[in-house]
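sry for the spam today, last one i promise. struct tokens for design, 511 residues
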């Protein structure tokens, strides 16, 4: 159980744990509660002065010039949620929803949103219940926030929409709230707006993808090491002197990982009098390519964690000055661009993995039997697994096309530049899933390649990976139905099991 003190900075480790489904208890510290109360008092003062404040005493978007009377302010906030909850597409995953809900509550606890404490406590109660709203994931352009999906997430507050039980059953919100023991709230001025301004949906999807990428970053190095040992390749490119003279942090981390994974290898000793000068780039340049992807991963993590601890409302309420500012903290560009950059990193891991696998299956390149089958011709071996890998990496090249380079005007040209952060996050999620499958296919092939030279012990980490795979999948002696075993290895990649098994032998590897 992880205890989170709302309003205090969420660490990368905590956010990763929530993304992976950890049990969480939310606590509202007195300092955060005091900030919330001060901001709410400021909103009340503004209302008494009858000043035009966006979304508080005016309409929204292109309707910001329309004044709203104080007695209609609650209706305005309710109507905002109902009119904006028009998302489409698949329902978000439960882990992503929990992250998004946490991030929205966290933003309010920064003390610049102007909501009442009871709204924060209501959202905390929903979080703890395990019940979650149905949230169609499409429909946000990531500018004034993830308006449509966040409105769906907020509908239960007013008793509208649908909710999903911890067991996955979808029922009407009013019935769900009775089971939880919650009563709908009557929203007051500013609260509806505070529920939907920001890119917490995009950030949550991105954080879940980032958590998966952290495991994939290590597993890609493991796959590269096992493939190198199957190829009987050179260890020289991983000498510490190489990255010392070109010290990119990701390349250094990858090189350190490779040395750990290849330690005590008998394959290295076989090169003592070897005439092979150098291996193909996909083996020789693992530190440079995997390392560049690691650097992109670090950039993404920094951006998403910073966003998770930010206030994104509009207007922002500043109790110290007794005023509010209408600005653009809701805009998704600060995370959209790193999300796009990370999609390119995924391509790097996938592209080089597919090339290593292809090399292993090519007799003239590897010295191994064609398609890694003991009887080529009668058997096709892993021929089509490489084709599948090629299809996946090609698909990921399309997912790497930057969403953030696009914009389209919305809300009668009032909101005339948007980030497309939501799409950037969703395509990154898809690219991660594809890359997990590609790395799984490489691991499957590399383990099979080791069957032809396993009289020479592989490096400690590579050997641990081989043995773990063999506990789950037997060697290929003749053609068989392989989809279930490839799915099995993909699961072991996605849930971090292969990483854990290897790190038990070599210690912590660098992401």
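last one done:
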């Amino acid at each position: 159980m992880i205890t989170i003190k709302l309003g205090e900075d969420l660490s990368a480790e905590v956010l990763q744990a929530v993304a992976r489904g950890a049990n969480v208890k939310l606590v509202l510290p007195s300092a955060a509660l005091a900030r919330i109360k001060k901001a709410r008092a400021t909103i009340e003062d503004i209302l008494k002065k009858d000043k035009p404040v966006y979304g508080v005493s005016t309409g929204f978007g292109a309707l910001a010039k329309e004044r709203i009377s104080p007695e209609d302010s609650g209706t305005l906030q309710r109507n905002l949620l109902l009119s904006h909850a028009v998302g489409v597409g698949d329902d978000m995953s439960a882990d992503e929803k929990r992250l998004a809900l946490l991030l929205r509550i966290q933003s309010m606890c920064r003390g610049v949103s102007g909501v009442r404490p009871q709204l924060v406590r209501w959202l905390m109660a929903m979080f703890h219940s395990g019940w979650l709203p149905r949230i169609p994931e499409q429909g946000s352009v990531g500018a004034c926030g993830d308006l449509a999906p966040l409105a769906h997430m907020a509908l239960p507050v007013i008793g509208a929409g649908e909710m999903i039980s911890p067991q996955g059953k979808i029922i009407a919100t009013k019935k769900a709230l009775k089971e939880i023991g919650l009563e709908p709230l009557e929203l007051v001025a500013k609260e509806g707006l505070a529920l939907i301004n920001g890119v917490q949906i995009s950030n949550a999807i991105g954080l879940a993808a980032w958590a998966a990428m952290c495991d994939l970053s290590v597993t890609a190095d493991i796959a590269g090491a096992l493939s190198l040992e199957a190829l009987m390749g050179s260890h020289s490119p991983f000498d510490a002197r190489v990255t010392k003279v070109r010290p990119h942090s990701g390349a250094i981390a990858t090189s350190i990982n490779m040395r750990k994974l290849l330690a005590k290898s008998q394959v290295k000793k076989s090169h003592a009098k070897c005439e092979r000068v150098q291996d193909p780039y996909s083996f020789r340049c693992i530190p440079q390519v995997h390392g560049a992807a690691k650097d992109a991963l670090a950039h993404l993590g920094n951006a998403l964690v910073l966003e998770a601890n930010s206030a994104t409302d509009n207007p922002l309420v500043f109790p110290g000055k007794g005023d509010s500012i209408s600005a653009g903290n809701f805009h998704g560009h600060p995370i959209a661009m790193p999300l796009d950059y990370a999609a390119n990193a995924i391509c790097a891991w996938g592209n080089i993995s597919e090339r290593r696998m292809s090399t292993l299956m090519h007799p003239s390149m590897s010295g191994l039997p064609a398609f890694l089958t003991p009887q080529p011709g009668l058997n096709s071996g892993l021929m089509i697994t490489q084709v599948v890998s090629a299809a996946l990496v090609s698909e990921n090249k399309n997912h790497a096309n930057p969403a953030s380079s696009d914009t389209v005007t919305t809300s009668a040209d009032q909101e005339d530049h948007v980030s497309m952060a939501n799409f950037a996050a969703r395509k990154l999620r898809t690219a991660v899933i594809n890359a997990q499958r590609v790395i799984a296919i490489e691991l499957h092939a590399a383990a099979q390649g080791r069957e032809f030279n396993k009289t020479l012990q592989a490096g400690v980490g590579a050997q641990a990976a081989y043995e773990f795979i063999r506990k789950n999948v037997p060697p290929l002696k003749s053609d068989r139905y392989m989809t279930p075993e490839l799915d099995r290895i993909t699961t072991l990649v996605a849930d971090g099991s292969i990483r854990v098994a290897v790190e038990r032998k070599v210690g912590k590897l660098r992401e």
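The radius of gyration is 26 Å. ok im logging off now
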